[in-house]
Amino acid sequence: MKRPNVLLRLTIAFGAGLGTAILVTLVAAILDLYLTGHGHGSIMREIVNWPAAGVHLSAADLAMFAAAFTAAWLAWRLAPGTK
Question: By three-state DSSP, how is residue 62 classified?
Answer without folding.
Answer: helix
